[in-house]
């Protein structure tokens, strides 16, 4: 990232995670600026990361080469409109991490600027995220690399050629953690109903989920093969999986992801 300055409009959890991830990968805190209307939040950020902080969004926009828009979608329009003049003049790379805010929306509010739209997920808060990225026309290869390094500080990054593909990313990895949390929650409840103490049930389920993920990540074979390896014919796992299959588990997952994508498209529209 050479010596470019990186700014954040909004100092919430995701912005903090990105800043912390970049610093952990060797980016000097002096190269990072963050703005937020909350003085208390800025004081916490300054103490935690030693970055520059200000309540003035324009001050950040006037200083940096890369501007990460990390405010809630419902206030994005107002935040961008106030920055339009300085953005059109300075042409920093704009990186938006707001769900449902399209490139068309951003250009309407900001004018012409190089824009990368991203869809990170909440595991980015612990540097284990998965982020889909789309570069609008006019973004250079160097700017794409810069965006990859910023979002890559909190997990894996995946580029897509069409913006509409981010709706599928939202449905799979953006909303995906909630799907796994629901399974964990349900499995904990099932363990307790079978007589296990709640604290033990929780630890067993979470460790099993973590272990299964690690095994899938590090294995040379896919989840389908791993499932087959743990499923002995006529055994306990086969009995459980039979219940899932009979209930249409796979079809329910397909329907759930399709519903999430449809809602993402509606919000973007």
In short:
It catalyses: L-proline + NADP(+) = (S)-1-pyrroline-5-carboxylate + NADPH + 2 H(+); L-proline + NAD(+) = (S)-1-pyrroline-5-carboxylate + NADH + 2 H(+). The protein has helices spanning 13-24, 39-49, 57-63, 73-81, 84-90, 103-110, 141-152, 165-174, 176-193, 198-218, 223-230, 236-246, 249-268, and strands spanning 6-9, 32-35, 52-54, 66-69, 93-96, 115-119, 129-135, 155-159. The model has no long low-confidence stretch (mean pLDDT 95).
- Choose one word for the global shape: elongated
Count, helices: 13
How many domains? 2
* Proportion of beta-strand residues: 5-15%
Largest sheet: 8 strands, mixed
Counted beta strands: 8
Q: What is the end-to-end distance?
A: 34 Å
CATH-scheme architecture of the largest domain? 3-Layer(aba) Sandwich
Q: pLDDT below 50 for ≥5 consecutive residues: which ranges?
A: none
Instruction: Please identify which CATH superfamily of the largest domain we are dealing with.
Output: NAD(P)-binding Rossmann-like Domain
The overall pLDDT, averaged over residues, is 95
CATH class of the largest domain: Alpha Beta
The CATH topology of the largest domain, please? Rossmann fold
Helix and strand element order: EHEHEHEHHEHEEHEHHHHHH
Helix content: 55-70%
Which structural category do the helix and sheet elements fall into? alpha/beta
Q: What strand line-up does the widest sheet have?
A: 3-2-1-4-5-6-7-8
CA gyration radius, whole angstroms:
21 Å
């Amino acid at each position: 990232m050479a010596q470019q300055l990186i700014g954040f409009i909004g100092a919430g959890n995701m912005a903090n995670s990105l800043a912390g991830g970049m610093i952990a990968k060797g980016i000097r805190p002096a190269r990072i600026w963050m703005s937020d209307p909350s003085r208390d939040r800025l004081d916490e950020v300054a103490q935690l990361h030693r970055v520059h902080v200000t309540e003035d969004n324009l001050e950040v926009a006037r200083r940096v080469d890369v501007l990460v828009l990390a405010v809630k979608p419902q206030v994005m329009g107002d935040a961008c409109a106030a920055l339009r003049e300085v953005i059109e003049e300075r042409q920093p790379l704009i990186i938006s991490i707001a769900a449902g805010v399209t490139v068309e929306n951003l250009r309407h509010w900001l004018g012409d600027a190089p824009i990368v739209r991203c869809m990170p997920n909440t595991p980015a808060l612990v540097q284990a995220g998965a982020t889909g990225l789309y570069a609008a026309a006019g973004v250079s290869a160097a700017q794409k690399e810069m965006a990859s390094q910023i979002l890559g500080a909190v997990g894996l990054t995946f580029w897509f050629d069409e913006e509409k593909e981010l709706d599928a990313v939202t449905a799979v990895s953006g909303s995906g953690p909630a799907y796994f949390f629901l399974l964990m929650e349900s499995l904990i409840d099932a363990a307790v109903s079978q007589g296990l103490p709640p604290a033990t049930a929780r630890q067993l389920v979470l460790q099993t989920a973590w272990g299964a993920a690690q095994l899938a990540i590090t294995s040379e074979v896919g989840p389908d093969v791993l499932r087959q390896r743990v499923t002995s014919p006529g055994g306990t796992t086969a009995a459980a999986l039979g219940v899932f299959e009979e209930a249409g588990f796979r079809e329910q997952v397909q329907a759930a992801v399709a519903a999430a994508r449809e809602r993402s498209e509606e919000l973007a529209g």
